[in-house]
Amino acid sequence: MAGRSSVRLPGATARVYSNAVEVAQEAARWITGVRVSRTGRLDVALAGGSTPRRLYEALAAPNTQDGVDWSRWHVWFGDERAVPPGDQASNYRLARETLLSRVPIPRGQVHRMPADQPDLENAARRYGEELLGSVPDRLGAMPRLDVVLLGLGENGHTASLFPGDPALEVRDELCVRARADYPPYERLTLTLPLLNAARYVVFLVTGPGKGDALRGVRAGTVPAGRVRPSSGELLWLLDDVAAEALR
Ligand code: 6PG
Hints:
With 247 residues, this protein is of the alpha/beta class. 28% of the residues lie in helices and 21% in strands. Helix 1 (20-32) crosses helix 2 (52-60) and helix 2 (52-60) packs parallel to helix 4 (91-100). The structure holds 6-phosphogluconic acid.
């Protein structure tokens, strides 16, 4: 993929674009170009937060979506807040409004992360079982997602893997309960072993405020720095403002 310039991040291809719109457009181009593997489907975990909004809108744009075989997509979520699916803070709501309601992905192929359930431990366990039962590809015993989209929090968290949270150290689960350091505090999140089993992991980082987090990724001192696909590719797509911290 092109890119105005590049910066160094460990184990990654890191490309810098002029602004957040270009990042979203490049990410949409890249994702729609990912080759469907022998499974015949594309298992994609969506990122939460606000950064992916432009990407989801770009994917749903007529000139993009018309070239995509959405029938092959299975949509998962990297994390979810413990709120109803229609809540303003819900990652599912963001994805539904900007992408899932606009493209013809078969309903049974959108796997919402049920963080609105009262028993979060049970909900996490059920989501892990759904992943195990549905995702056909494996890396060892681990379900292998094709694409995992992630954002980067100002403290270096990603998905809902926050500094110091026990969820960050879980090795034998696919999805766990987690606690954020800002509301909504209660979350569900995919675990590092599952993220690191993916074919491709793509971080989207734009705008100010992420400098310390990016330096932490480079130093390996923050959760996002521990996302290193063991047999996959790691891509960082940044805009100029965010990338300034790495120059
Ligand atoms: C969440 C996300 C989280 C997000 C980062 C960056 O549920 O909040 O999964 O990891 O990606 O906090 O958020 P922004 O894109 O809003 O900066």
